[in-house]
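Table 4 source record.
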Amino acid sequence: MRLDGFGLLVEDMGKMIRFYRDVLGFEIKEEENTSNVYLVKDGTLFLLYGRKDFEKMTNRRYEYIKGLNGHFEIALYVDTFEEVDEAYRKAVENGATSVLEPELEPWGQRTCYIADPEGNLIEIGSWNKPYEEKDLTEG
């Protein structure tokens, strides 16, 4: 199996569309009153799916955590340490919740965490090299 994508089950579709489109720059074209969003971002399917619609489709009810949750994270990459700081600053100025300010970790990555309006964690990090080179080992 290959990872095709991932989705978020959302409560307030309009608010989540505005956040991912306007704050993080995802190319969402659907209207804010849509029931789901399918977007290919950097070769990966990203889905926003209304909770009520998903429950109706699967004929089940689910539990949802309120506030910040630690179930998973969405990891975003930028090429330089400076871009981590800038992306964090812009996101927080535009309504993201600050979770961890940018810091250089002992393993050499500069990273920070924010949360979207429904409490999902988003990491913005960099190894101070282009995305295509970040996983290449030295030597």
